[in-house]
Amino acid sequence: MQKRWIDRYFTAIKVVIMLCAYGYLTYMLATFKMYQEFAESLRHLSLTRIGCLATVFLLVLANWGLEGLKWHKLLAHLEPTPFIKATKQVLIGLTAGFFTPNRIGEPIGRCMLLPEGKRSQGVALMMVGVMGQTFASLVYGVVACTGFLSLYHTTSMPMDMWLTFGGVLLAMLSLVYFTLPSWGKCLITGKLSSFWQFMYDIRSGLLRLSCITDWLKSLIPYFKAALSVSYGTLLRVTLYSLLRYGVYCLQYFLMLRFFDIQIDTLTALLIIPINYLAVSATPSIAFAEMGIRGSLAIMFLGSFTQNTVGVALAAIGIWFINYVMPMLLGSVLLWREKR
Fold first, then answer.
1. How far is residue 22's CA from residue 127's CA, in Å, rounded to a whole number?
2. How do the domains of the chain map onto residue ranges?
3. S-S: 3 plus which of 7, 175, 249, 300, CB 3.0-4.6 Å?
4. What is the enclosing helix (H) or strand (E) of 225?
5. Taking a C-beta distance cutoff of 8 angstroms, is the pair 197, 210 a contact?
6. Of 32, 42, 29, 87, whose CA–CA distance to 259 is shortest?
7. Which of 210, 182, 301 shows the shortest CA–CA distance to 253?
């Protein structure tokens, strides 16, 4: 059987990915303008601050371990893969997505290690995992916004009204998210197939629309791959996503403490998810996230502390630890991969 292009040019693809990833990393480090402030922040370190930083590093294992566990569970429907190998694919995908807008290269990097014929379906399964993480960010964001507004908003609207509003919004989000598989199955039912057949029957008058239906028909295998995920697996993916988001928030809180940002604990735990929600909604290229995250952190957390430099460094530091370091590990794993 003739090899696909991704197998024929695997070595070249590895080289291109690594050159781009390391090139952007070099650019990022060369244009970073807060080295002096960072050095100043490291003076007079206490055991408490060092302990906070050490815990942040340890939680990186939980962060990407949970993502590896999600991918491991999703692949069980397509290509049963050991947990270690699934986590390896996650890190390689992180490397491929590091230099692309909104990490659109990550699915390609993650799925190119799958067997031939299953890579496209793997991308569809990854989208299920992305949806789970997006749902988690919305849940944390809605809860945090509701809590923040109920505690700090200056209008006469009582706290129970804010809590009711947040509860209703969460219920609506959950209803939409957990019924997506049912809605998706409607796309491959007989009724919709009859609709497509009807469109083909009037091809002469709707030639352009029939081309659209041709394209939709070509997507059926990807729909089937995504819809092969059971509700039990979807619930697990959601749980892992919620836990992973909790790890994010805890890491950020500890990083604030490392840079000696003395914000009230409750306030910090409410603002951090709101800040993350804003970051996730901001289109960016991964290497540009350093500046974006620092700016958004100052906007959301700067109102509660005078140490805005420390706030920016905390946001940049947590991004570097959570993404750049795993990316470097992923690049090593990619380079060692053979075809």
1. 26
2. 5-336
3. 7
4. helix 220-227
5. no
6. 42
7. 301
Q: Give the residue carrying structure tokens 């502390």.
A: 305
Secondary structure letter of residue 51 according to DSSP: H
Instruction: Compute the distance between CA of residue 196 and CA of residue 178 in angstroms, rounded to an integer.
Output: 27
| Count of residues in the chain | 339
DSSP line for 147-165: HHHHHH--SS--HHHHHHH
User: Within 13 Å of residue 210, how many CA atoms lie on the same side as its CB?
Assistant: 11
Q: What pLDDT digit, counting tens, does each position of 16-74 carry?
A: 887 887 887 787 777 777 788 878 878 878 899 899 999 999 999 999 999 999 999 98
DSSP annotation of 4 reads P
How far apart (Å, rounded) are the C-alpha atoms in residues 147 and 157? 13
The two tokens of residue 91 are 């890190």
Q: Which of 266, 248, 258, 271 is nearest to 322 (CA)?
A: 248
Tell me the C-alpha distance between 312 and 289, whole Å.
Answer: 12
Joined tokens for residue 209: 């629309």
Scanning the structure block, which residue is given the tokens 């890579």? 119
CA dist., res. 334 & res. 122, Å (int): 18
* Interval 105-132 mean pLDDT: 81
Q: Residues 79, 329, 260, 281: is their CA dihedral positive or negative?
A: negative
